[in-house]
């Protein structure tokens, strides 16, 4: 059987940073590695750095104003159709770019991924456009059931019938053979430094840990508008010798941080009236892959895959005392045995792969699954 043609339409792509950009690249790469001929139509801020040689065909237009970028991508798709190209499957990695190709290949099944924030809190006009586009998808892929249930409650005209949940895979950090060993009381967080990540409460919680019993070190990687206030908060709490802000950290160094961390702290909350929600939490998946036990907020995507007390912990995110108790429990368990760490790592290795993510999409859309 000849490999099917898969068209990936993405609003963004590496080298640009961002969740959808990373998602789009990993999905396209997984389809290609599974033996499909992958064509990519996308937009980037720096077209010269895009990974065009990794795919059968690749075209990235330069990002400009949103409507101008959409027209540029539309012209690329029209030229592709005129050349005789006909995909067997179209995968739009977000709903806003689905319409660019949706009406050019009317008989081709289209899959659209919903990540979370991009479908919530919309104006009435944009909401109607989203409903129009998504209603014409053969399959809507949600990166977590939490996002699917929120979507179905806010868009009652949809049902679960043409939806699936497919968890994201982990980040590819390349060679991970030469990494530091676990440090018994090391706590680590990497995220955007914004209110939704609940980092001020995280600092309050770690300040309540018995440092004589658990001589911890808390390291925080990431950039964002709260950097200065977090630094001031840590100083006020007397954490100067137990807390370190790392700023921006490249992927190879992030892997080293995951490797040495015993606990990955991510007590996120919902923001903007519930419209800004953790769709999946790829940093949590990455941490679990390295055996760092996650402590996450009991909301959004992490609810799907963190089983409290079995492969991590969930917290409400509104009480520093509760979070400190969970941190102490986790440190106690980890100092007694490695069972929790092993369960965390095994779960991630089994469920967080891009091949698994793409094969669920292929099954739902009727595309054949290659025997590996």
Please provide a written account of the structure.
The chain is α/β, with parallel strands linked by helices. The protein folds into 2 domains: 5-169 and 353-365, Glycogen Phosphorylase B (Rossmann fold, 3-Layer(aba) Sandwich), CATH 3.40.50.2000; 186-351, Glycogen Phosphorylase B (Rossmann fold, 3-Layer(aba) Sandwich), CATH 3.40.50. The protein has helices spanning 19-33, 66-82, 98-102, 124-135, 145-154, 199-207, 227-236, 251-260, 282-289, 302-305, 320-336, 339-351, 354-365; strands spanning 5-9, 37-44, 57-62, 89-92, 110-114, 139-142, 163-165, 186-190, 217-221, 243-247, 263-266, 293-297, 313-315. α6 (199-207) links the parallel β8 and β9. The radius of gyration is 21 Å and the shape is elongated. The model has no long low-confidence stretch (mean pLDDT 92).
Give the quaternary arrangement of the chains: single chain
Under CATH, the topology of the largest domain can be stated as Rossmann fold
Q: CATH homologous superfamily name of the largest domain?
A: Glycogen Phosphorylase B
CATH architecture classification of the largest domain? 3-Layer(aba) Sandwich
CATH class of the largest domain: Alpha Beta
Radius of gyration over C-alpha positions, nearest whole angstrom: 21 Å
Provide a compact summary of the structure:
This protein is an alpha/beta fold.
Secondary structure topology:
Blueprint: E1 5-9, H1 19-33, E2 37-44, E3 57-62, H2 66-82, E4 89-92, H3 98-102, E5 110-114, H4 124-135, E6 139-142, H5 145-154, E7 163-165, E8 186-190, H6 199-207, E9 217-221, H7 227-236, E10 243-247, H8 251-260, E11 263-266, H9 282-289, E12 293-297, H10 302-305, E13 313-315, H11 320-336, H12 339-351, H13 354-365
Parallel strand pairs: 1-2, 1-4, 2-3, 4-5, 5-6, 6-7, 8-9, 8-11, 9-10, 11-12, 12-13
Helix pairs in contact: 1-13, 6-11, 9-12
């Amino acid at each position: 059987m000849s490999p099917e043609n898969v068209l990936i339409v993405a609003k963004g792509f590496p080298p640009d940073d961002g969740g959808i950009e990373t998602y789009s690249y990993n999905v396209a790469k997984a389809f290609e590695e599974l033996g499909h001929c992958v064509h990519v139509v996308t937009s980037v801020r720096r077209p010269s750095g895009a990974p065009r040689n990794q795919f059968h065909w690749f075209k990235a237009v330069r990002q400009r104003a949103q409507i101008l970028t959409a027209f540029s991508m539309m012209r690329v798709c029209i030229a592709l159709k005129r050349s005789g190209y006909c995909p067997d499957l179209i995968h739009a990695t977000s709903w806003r770019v689905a319409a660019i190709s949706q009406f050019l290949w009317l008989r081709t099944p289209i899959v659209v991924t919903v990540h979370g924030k991009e479908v919530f809190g919309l104006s009435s006009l944009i909401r109607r456009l989203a409903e129009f586009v998504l209603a014409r998808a053969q399959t809507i892929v949600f990166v977590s059931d939490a996002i699917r249930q929120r979507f179905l409650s806010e868009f009652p005209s949809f049902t679960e019938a043409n939806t699936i949940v497919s968890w994201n895979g982990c980040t590819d950090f390349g060679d991970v053979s030469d990494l530091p060993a676990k440090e018994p009381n090391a706590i680590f967080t990497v995220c955007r430094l914004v209110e939704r990540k609940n980092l001020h409460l995280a600092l309050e919680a770690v300040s309540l840990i018995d440092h004589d019993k658990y001589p911890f070190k808390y390291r925080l990687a990431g950039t964002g508008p709260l950097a200065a206030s977090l630094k001031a908060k840590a100083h006020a709490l007397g954490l100067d010798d137990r807390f370190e802000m790392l700023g921006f950290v490249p992927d190879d160094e992030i892997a080293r941080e995951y490797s040495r961390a015993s606990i990955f702290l991510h007590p996120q909350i919902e923001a903007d009236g519930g419209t800004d929600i953790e769709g999946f939490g790829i940093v949590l998946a990455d941490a679990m892959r390295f055996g760092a036990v996650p402590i996450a907020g009991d909301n959004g995507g992490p609810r799907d895959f963190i089983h409290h007390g079995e492969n991590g912990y969930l917290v409400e995110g509104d009480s520093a005392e509760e979070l400190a108790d969970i941190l102490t429990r986790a440190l106690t368990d980890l100092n007694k045995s490695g069972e929790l760490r092993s369960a965390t790592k095994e779960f991630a290795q089994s469920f967080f792969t891009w091949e698994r993510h793409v094969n669920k999409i292929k099954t739902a859309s009727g595309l054949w699954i290659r025997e590996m």
